[in-house]
Amino acid sequence: MYKILEKKVLNIDVDLMVVEAPLVARNALPGHFIILRVDELGERIPLTIVDIDGQNVSIIYQKLGYSTSLLGELKVGDEILDFVGPLGKPAHIHDVKTVLGIAGGVGAAPLLPQLKEYAARGIKVDLVIGARNKDYIILLDKYEEICENIYIATDDGSLGTKGFVTTVLTELYKTKKYDQTIAIGPLVMMKFVVAMNKKYNVPTDVSLNPIMIDGTGMCGNCRVTIDGKTFFACIDGPDFPGEGVDFDELIARQDYYSEEEHICNLKLVKK
Ligand code: NAD
Ligand code: FES
């Protein structure tokens, strides 16, 4: 069992949790993730490791469905049944001079450990962070510790530029050039960021989070197509160079699961 040591509400949908998990903490690198189960009936929830402090692991989750809502009901002192990791491949840290992180919504959580690693290596790090409104901009204090410049976008204009991260990028690229970018957020955001970056000849790493079941390459559920070849996000990723990713296929599959979940919920309501 894995004890919850701290819990912090980041906004109405998103919490940060610090969990005592010494074996995971000892072996984790930026980009690794864990899969947890709240209890015996719980679904497996994959979450990127956001931070390590001694024997403790920080995770951030969005209360989107049944299992993440169940996780959100746990309190400090409660225990999580399974907390397996580190899983996946660590993110590739490029040998470059300048890096731009591009975070969309809760994607700011998995981006943080990668940007921290670049900053720790003395690489100049900037950030573009976007969210639907100012309350959904998370981890700004942590990013302020490592970034030279932070550019904010909100869909409603309540903080920073009114618009998407791509609105900010359009302006930023008029004066700045980066050796490498890392974009993490909704699939549609990563799709459009990669397309824009291709025009400016800037490489983009992305983090892919298709539905995962076992997290060990056995079930095939997390498959992604990159340059026409099949990869499994759980063992080959979750971070990949974004240029060859078939985002349309991933978006179609994500919508399929959302519709399935919607139909299941309707059936439950009708019973
Ligand atoms: P959201 O839908 O509120 O979008 C966040 C920001 O992304 C927007 O404010 C905007 O700046 C940008 N964005 C959205 N659509 C865009 C478009 N068409 N073009 C350009 N930019 C666009 O995000 P949210 O609700 O916080 O995130 C939820 C989604 O993020 C979920 O689908 C979740 O699965 C995904 N997610 C992905 C990862 C990952 O590792 N890839 C991690 C966490 C969450
Ligand atoms: Fe089953 Fe990746 S989650 S193969």
Summarize the structure.
With 271 residues, this protein is of the alpha/beta class.
Structure report:
With 271 residues, the chain is of the alpha/beta class. It folds into three domains: 2-87, Elongation Factor Tu (Ef-tu), domain 3; 92-207, Nucleotide-binding domain of ferredoxin-NADP reductase (FNR) module (Rossmann fold), CATH 3.40.50; 208-271, no CATH class. 31% of the residues lie in helices and 31% in strands. The protein contains eight helices and 17 strands. Strands 12-11-10-9-13-14-17 form a seven-stranded mixed β-sheet, sandwiched between helices. Strands 5-6-2-1-7 form a five-stranded antiparallel β-sheet. The protein is globular and about 50 Å long.
Could you say what the CATH architecture of the largest domain is? 3-Layer(aba) Sandwich
Tell me the CATH superfamily of the largest domain.
Nucleotide-binding domain of ferredoxin-NADP reductase (FNR) module
Please write the string of helix (H) and strand (E) elements. EEHEEEEHEEEHEHEEHEHEEEHEH
List ligands, each type once. Answer: nicotinamide-adenine-dinucleotide, FE2/S2 (inorganic) cluster
Largest sheet: 7 strands, mixed
Strand content: 25-35%
Number of strands: 17
Number of H- or I-type helical stretches: 8
Which spans of ≥5 residues are poorly predicted at pLDDT below 50? Answer: 259-271
Largest sheet, spatial ordering of strands: 12-11-10-9-13-14-17
Using only C-alpha atoms, the radius of gyration works out to 18 Å
The general outline is globular
The residue-averaged pLDDT reads: 93
